[in-house]
Structure prediction request, 284 residues.
Amino acid sequence: MTFELFGGVVLDSLSDSVKLLPFLFLAFLFMEALEHSAGGKINKALASSGKAGPVIGALLGCVPQCGFSVFSANLYSGGVIGAGTLIAVFLSTSDEAVIIMLSNPDKKQEILKLIAVKVIIAVIFGYIITLLERIKPAPKKQVEDLCKECGCDEDDGIFMPALRHTVKILAFLTVIIFFINLFVEMLGTQRLSSILLSDSVFQPFIAALIGLVPSCASSIILTQLYLQGAISFASVIAGLCTGAGAGLIVLFRENRNLKENLFITFALYAAAVLSGTVIQILQI
Prediction:
């Protein structure tokens, strides 16, 4: 690799990241304002959702913030909500994907499609798991809002948390954009797509595995690969359906029943792969 090529990739990556900065900050500022003004009401609605749990969970989960997947995992661990509602929240959660797509004007029309498809998937599989659920609820324990997992503090107001989220995600994005740009430059989009099994029914399997990594980095990687044209819409759906952020970490930490946790993880992966495969075949 020549120095000119490497330097060009670095400059392009920094340029792409700087362009995202105002969009990311404004989006996170809006989400912090929403969480501070209505977060408690939203969490109470989830906790008291009853039979409508999968629908409410799917709608709340599609809001791009870390709190809902974490909060729902804690509610499930305390026996407040069922596995169907938890699965619905996890499946509809898109983490930073929506915000990143908002930062790319040419992909804004894809956002509503992505959200709508994920909500439909979440509701369908949420009710399927509810009907099939034979899991004994975990012992009741005190439920706490674990948004502290993201480093948020209610006393900080909305500006500083939004700024911290922006800096953290922008740092992730800069590194990931750099490596993706480097790979694309060295391999070419067609070669990279071939490595990721482009146009294959098996690509959603790989994307869903990437999504299971409990970090916002996985959703950022998947979204950037989709924006670069390296993976299909079906695959980004599969990957983002398993990308529940810190939700799975909290589930395994708070819920002592390993069998339940493994069942939920497997159900999440199976639902994501099946949905991605169907979308791939139907070319939605």
Notes: The two ends are 39 Å apart (CA to CA).
